[in-house]
What we know:
The chain has helices at about 15-20, 35-45, 65-70; strands at about 55, 75-80, 85-95. Helix content is about 20%, strand content about 20%.
Amino acid sequence: xxxxxxxxxxxxxxxxxxxxxxxxxxxxxxxxxxxxxxxxxxxxxxxxxxxxxxxxxxxxxxxxxxxxxxxxxxxxxxxxxxxxxxxxxxxxxxxxxxxxx
Length: 101
């Protein structure tokens, strides 16, 4: 379960003042906001047991791209809304059946 930095670098200056008080390391997701996800998806096999789940908080407009990034190695990809009705959580199951023990 992870809440990575997912805000595109170009959008950081326009964030609300209370959000900008957070460390930039916790906000800046790179040019498209997906830098951390790329690393996480690549490294996930080393940390998940067979058919383990990956739960990711994500930003607005990132659902389709993240789901596409996961399709090679994950199944049962689901997207859940937050209390405001915005797509906020992505859940996926690792396809590998042997995994770590």
